[in-house]
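Hey there, shall we discuss this one?
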Amino acid sequence: MGKWNWQYRDWPNFTWDRQQTQARLPSVYHKQGYVAGLVNSLNGRRALITKALTENIVASFAIEGEYLDATDVSNEIERGFGQPSSYEKTKSVGLLEGNAAALISNIFDKSSEVLTPHRLGVWQRCMFERTYSSAQIGQPATWRTEDIQVVSGGRGNRKIHFEAPGPLRVPIEMEAFLKWFFSSRKSKEIDPVSRAALAHLWFVTVHPFEDGNGRSARAVADLALFQSDKNAVLYPMAPYILADRENYYRVLERTQSSGLDVTEWMIWFFKTLENALDGAITRLSWSIEANNLVTMQPENRLLTQQVRILVLLHDDADQNVISASQYAAINSVSKATATRHLTDLVDKGYLCVCEGRGRSTKYRLSDK
């Protein structure tokens, strides 16, 4: 018996308080069903999928301190949907953003494909600009050849948060993990949510790569969720993990250094998944409302340009207010037209004036 979970004799026979986790499943399943019902009420969901995929991969990279251009990632995902892009737009997209879009698309577009070392190799190369090239496509993942420690602090104040299995064990550990991941998909011994939680923990504990293990572990969990619920694409967990990043690492550290009982990790995962589901329900409910705004009676009906702005203000944390100039630029209309549209939204109670007068007037969502 050692300090780390993988050093225990019974590794990887994880245990957890199933009574505690099973008690949380009805709420998760209810919210998954609610999301499914909302999706069925939507006229179209491609834009929502693009946004969710973008938020997922951008947040997953940000957890590790790697910041992507969300617009570039979104454009690349749209191109994957077959949407035309100008040469200039395509040329300007960073290689890392393009690879990140390819990674997240691979997870959700090919969920039926078996998770193999070759597929992990594609993911691995998508994470790192320097290692991705057409000549390497189809090659298996490159397992690490060095010892790995997760540490913090400088000399004299160094703390080891986790030490991964030695590199000679990695091929054996990954073979066992991939066999379990394949067989557990249709197993009655574990529910789909617990499977996703356990896959995340198990993968990141083996730490098979020199770098990118956290991103890969989150991708594996995404894949597990999507294999059981096709709507999982619309409730990405990474943004909520990012918002709780310190606790995420803290729970991982405690779990990896306290034997094979993973109850605390499972409960944290379930809570975070519920947060993601709540966010998706809010977003989808608003999208349905936005769709209705352009189909209501003529005297109350809104223009497509007006709805576009309401969706933007509702759904984008960085866009809390808007001016007539911004409205005009977003919708390709004149400033006079923009002012009329915004004034109409104020009259109908959707917006209110929050600051300024005349040309400097700013608008925000009302409390309607």
